[in-house]
Amino acid sequence: MPSHRLTLFADYHQFYLQDEAATGDLASAWDEAATLRMLAVSEGVVGFGTARNMPVPVTLEWLPAEPEADLAAFDHMVEGSVVIAQGPLVVAGCTDYFPDAARFDVPPGTYRVRLSCAGLDSLSADGLEGDDHYLVQLWPGALREPAVLKQHPG
Asked: Regarding beta strands 102-104 and 4-9, do their DSSP bridges make them parallel or antiparallel, or are they unpaired?
């Protein structure tokens, strides 16, 4: 599948990727550890943290296999997994109107998910403007507990 560029409203400093029929709830998944790593997981859903509470640019990439982790190009990088039981895959800001959210047909299965964040130090003093951007990569792979590959100090 090709990559897709989206602009998502990161209300509450987060956006989601999920199986449309997912029953998981991220409300209790956003504990202190998840907030620090900028990734929370629940059944069929992954929440990604952002630096701004505003619309943010997100690139979504589907890959056939695990990509190399380009740690030098990003401020923060974290991985986890999501199970797509039936699809489609939905990508949305947490307060977006769900029926209008972006949808992508993906085969059911287990996917590894990597969030790579850049420009996290570019935010204005009020935190509303910045050049932060987010790359979400998915590829088929076994379940994995969330893991930070590179931690941003902010």
From this structure: unpaired
| Residue boundaries of the structural domains of the chain | 4-150
DSSP string, 40-99: EEETTEEEEE-S-SSEEEEEEEE-SSPPP--GGG-SEEEEEEEEESS--EEEEETTS-GG
Of the candidates 11, 121, 21, which has an alpha carbon nearest to the alpha carbon of residue 56?
11
Element (H, E) at 35: helix 32-37
Whole-structure pTM value: 0.95
118: pLDDT confidence band, cut at 50, 70 and 90?
A: very high
Domain spanning 4-150, CATH class: mainly beta
Closest to 47 in 3D by CA, of 59, 38, 55:
38
